[in-house]
Amino acid sequence: MSELKxxxxxxxxxxxxxxxxxxxxxxxxxxxxxxxxxxxxxxKGEALCPYCGTxxxxxxxxxxxxx
Length: 67
What we know:
The protein is an all-beta fold. The protein has one domain. Helices cover 0% and strands 22% of the residues. The chain contains no helices and five strands. The strands form two sheets. The protein has a three-stranded mixed sheet, with no helix packed on it. The chain is globular. The chain starts with 10 loop residues before the first strand and ends in a 9-residue tail after the last strand.
């Protein structure tokens, strides 16, 4: 079982396999979670959560085919 992460990290690198991206992520502790919000990360390669301010960065940058 993977270790649960406290949602205190301000920058998280995600993989293409994590898409569609939403915050909080499934492996974050739920006690300090906010409502789930889907984040459009494919085009720019990064997205900022409007609830908690966590910056997500897509490993490898923007997805091909998104302009």
